[in-house]
Amino acid sequence: MRIFSDIKSYTSDVTSLIWNFILHRDAYPENAKLAVQPELMVNVIDDPEQCHYCDFYDINLFISRDSEGKPVPNSIAIKNMASRYYQVG
Predict the structure, then answer these.
(1) Per-residue pLDDT reduced to its tens digit, 36-79
(2) Are 40 and 2 within 8 A, CB to CB?
(3) Are 41 and 10 in contact (CB under 8 A)?
(4) Residue ranges of domains in the chain
(5) Beta-carbon contacts of residue 51 (< 8 Å; ≥ 6 apart)
(6) How far apart are alpha carbons 65 and 24 in whole angstroms?
(7) Residue ranges of the alpha helices (H) in 1-89?
(8) How far apart are CA 44 and CA 51, in angstroms?
(9) Pseudo-torsion of CA 37, 53, 72, 79, nearest 10°?
(10) At what angle do helices 7-23 and 75-82 cross, to 10 degrees?
(11) What gap in Å lies between CA 88 and CA 79, rounded to an integer?
């Protein structure tokens, strides 16, 4: 059973993880990646060695810059990734 029943709640969770990474980057391992456990749709940001049976994504793919140059979650990239796991329609 998936923890998130729909793409909207899933993208919200991933966006929150990315915000946390942006705000507390020093708290994460240097080689951290977004890890998705597809069967449960559990998401974490961690060292790939710490997550088995996960799909891994470079976190930088999900970070863009706002008009002031500050890092923010890239909602388009997050939705594109989420659509791999949830059918949109």
Answers:
(1) 988 777 899 999 998 888 999 999 999 999 999 999 999 999 99
(2) yes
(3) yes
(4) 7-82
(5) 35, 37, 44
(6) 17
(7) 7-23, 75-82
(8) 9
(9) -50
(10) 130
(11) 10
